[in-house]
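Module 6 notes. Inverse folding takes a fixed backbone as the condition and produces residue identities as the prediction. Think of it as a translation problem where the source language is geometry and the target language is the twenty amino acids. Below is one complete input and output pair. Work through it position by position during the lab.
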C-alpha cells in the first residue's frame, strides 16, 4: 500500500490550474497521476475527452446486485496568485506542523487522496469486497464544470448508482466532523460600462460626461439596503424558512461571534436583521461584488476619465431559489438602474442550482429516501463517533458545488458530503495547506463507511 502523504506531495507538484492555458502540462500531469494511481488499485480507468480538460471515470467491476457508490473529486486547482504572498512556492509541497502546504492540498487533492487511500486499504484487506465503486474525477470544477453536465447526460446509463460520496466541503475544527446537507447555488455575471470612445483627459473633458466608474458605483450602491439585505424585487420570495433542527445543529457547533469576527479581521459584522453571522452564511442568499476596475491602475497618478469600467457580481442562492429567476431579477435591476448616459452590457457567467438532502431521523426526512442512502448516513454517524470521538453535525454550507445538484437532477442520486477542509486551510488563497490529521481521520471514516455499505 502506498504512503498517502507522499502521494499527496506528488499530486500537489503538478500545477493543475484549469483556468489558465499556461498550466496545460500541469493539468495533464495531474490527470495522468490520478489515472495511474487508480490503475494501481486495479480499477478500469477511462480518460474521457471534453472540449477542455478530461474527466476520469475509474470503475471497479462487480456483481450487478452489489451496491454502487460513486466517489467524486476534482484534480484542478485555483490559480496561485498573488505569488509574492506565499511563504513557500505553491507547487513545491512542504510538510510542516502537521500540515502539507501547497496549492490544491486542501482543495481538493488532499480530500480526494483520503478517499483513494481508504479504497486502497479496504481492497487490500478484502479484494472480494462486494461493493461496486466508481471514481468520477473532473478537471474543470474551479471553472464551473462546463463539461460535466454534458458528460452526465451522455453517460447516465453507466453511472447508475446508489449514492455519491465526496469531500469538497469543510469542518469547523479538526475534532468536530460535519456532514454537509446543503449547498448554496450560484449566479455570476460581469457588467461592463462604457462612456466615451476612448480614455479622456480629466481636466479638458471632466464635468461634461458621466464617468463609467461613477455609473457602476451608483449601480452597485443600489443593490443592497442599508441593513445588508439584497435590494432586488422578488429576491427573497422563494427562500424557505429554516427548519428548527438545523438551528439546533448549528447551536451545538458552539461557535463564538467574537472569535469569528477576530478570525475575519473586521471591526463589526454587517448581517441582515434576524440572523446571527453563523446563520447568515448558511441560510441566506447573498449578492457580492467580486471585482471592480477601470481607469489607471499603476503607481502614481494618471488623470484620465476611463472609457470603460467593469464589476463582477455573484449571487449565492439557497434551496428553493432558481438561477433562472435570480438572473432575471438581477439583470432587470441592472438595466433599470444603470445611468442612461453610459452604455453597458451584461456578460452572463456560469451558474449552479442549490442542493439539499435531509438526513434520516430529522423532522422532515423525505419519505421514500433510498435505503442505501439512509444506511450510509447511519454508517457515517457510527464511523465519525469511532474515529473522531463525537457524532457529526449536519449543516448547510455557504459555498457551492454546482455539480452535486446536476448529479441529482440528471442521475437522480443524492450525495453524502464529508467535510475535510478547515477554515485555516486558506482555500483559494495564498499559503493553502491541509491538516494531515484530518486527512488520516477522513480516510478512516471513508473506509468504515464503504465497508458498511458492502453487501452482507
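Target side of the pair, the amino acids:
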Amino acid at each position: 500500500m502506498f504512503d498517502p502523504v507522499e502521494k499527496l506531495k506528488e499530486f500537489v507538484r503538478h500545477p493543475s490550474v484549469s483556468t489558465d492555458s499556461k498550466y496545460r502540462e500541469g493539468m495533464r500531469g495531474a490527470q495522468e497521476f490520478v489515472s495511474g494511481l487508480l490503475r494501481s488499485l486495479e480499477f478500469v480507468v477511462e480518460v474521457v475527452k471534453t472540449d477542455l480538460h478530461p474527466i476520469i471515470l475509474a470503475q471497479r467491476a462487480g456483481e450487478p446486485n452489489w451496491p454502487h457508490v460513486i466517489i467524486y473529486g476534482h484534480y484542478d486547482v485555483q490559480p496561485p496568485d498573488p505569488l509574492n504572498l506565499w511563504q513557500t512556492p505553491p507547487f513545491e509541497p512542504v510538510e510542516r506542523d502537521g500540515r502539507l502546504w501547497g496549492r490544491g492540498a486542501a482543495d481538493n487533492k488532499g480530500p480526494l487522496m483520503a478517499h483513494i487511500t481508504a479504497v486502497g486499504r479496504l481492497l487490500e484487506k478484502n479484494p472480494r469486497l462486494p461493493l461496486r465503486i466508481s471514481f468520477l474525477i473532473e478537471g474543470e470544477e474551479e471553472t464551473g464544470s462546463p463539461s460535466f453536465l454534458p458528460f452526465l447526460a451522455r453517460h447516465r446509463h453507466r453511472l447508475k448508482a446508489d449514492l455519491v460520496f465526496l469531500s469538497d466541503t469543510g469542518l469547523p475544527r479538526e475534532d468536530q466532523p460535519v456532514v454537509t446537507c446543503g449547498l448554496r447555488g450560484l449566479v455570476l455575471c460581469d457588467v461592463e460600462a462604457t462612456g466615451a470612445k476612448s480614455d479622456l483627459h480629466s481636466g479638458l473633458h471632466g464635468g461634461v460626461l458621466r464617468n463609467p466608474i461613477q455609473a457602476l458605483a451608483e449601480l452597485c450602491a443600489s443593490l443592497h439596503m442599508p441593513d445588508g439585505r439584497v435590494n432586488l424585487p422578488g429576491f427573497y420570495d422563494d427562500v424557505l424558512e429554516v427548519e428548527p433542527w438545523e438551528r439546533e445543529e448549528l447551536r451545538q457547533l458552539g461557535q463564538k461571534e467574537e472569535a469569528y469576527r477576530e478570525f475575519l479581521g473586521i471591526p463589526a459584522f454587517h448581517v441582515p436583521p434576524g440572523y446571527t453571522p453563523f446563520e447568515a452564511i448558511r441560510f441566506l442568499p447573498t449578492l457580492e461584488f467580486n471585482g471592480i476596475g477601470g481607469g489607471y491602475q499603476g503607481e502614481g497618478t494618471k488623470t484620465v476619465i476611463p472609457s470603460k469600467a467593469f464589476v463582477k457580481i455573484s449571487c449565492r442562492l439557497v434551496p428553493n431559489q432558481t438561477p433562472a429567476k435570480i438572473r432575471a431579477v438581477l439583470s432587470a435591476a441592472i438595466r433599470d438602474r444603470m445611468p442612461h448616459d453610459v452604455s453597458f452590457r451584461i456578460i452572463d457567467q456560469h451558474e449552479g442550482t442549490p442542493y439539499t438532502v435531509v438526513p434520516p431521523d430529522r423532522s422532515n426526512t423525505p419519505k421514500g429516501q433510498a435505503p442505501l442512502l439512509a444506511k450510509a448516513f447511519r454508517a457515517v454517524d457510527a464511523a465519525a463517533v469511532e474515529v473522531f470521538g463525537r457524532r457529526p453535525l449536519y449543516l448547510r454550507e455557504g459555498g457551492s458545488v454546482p455539480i452535486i445538484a446536476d448529479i441529482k437532477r440528471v442521475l437522480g442520486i443524492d450525495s453524502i458530503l464529508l467535510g475535510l477542509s478547515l477554515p485555516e486551510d486558506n482555500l483559494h488563497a495564498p499559503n493553502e495547506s491541509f491538516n494531515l490529521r484530518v486527512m488520516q481521520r477522513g480516510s478512516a471514516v471513508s473506509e468504515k463507511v464503504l465497508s458498511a455499505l458492502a453487501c452482507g
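Reference fact for the lab report: Residues 105-125 form the longest helix (21 residues).
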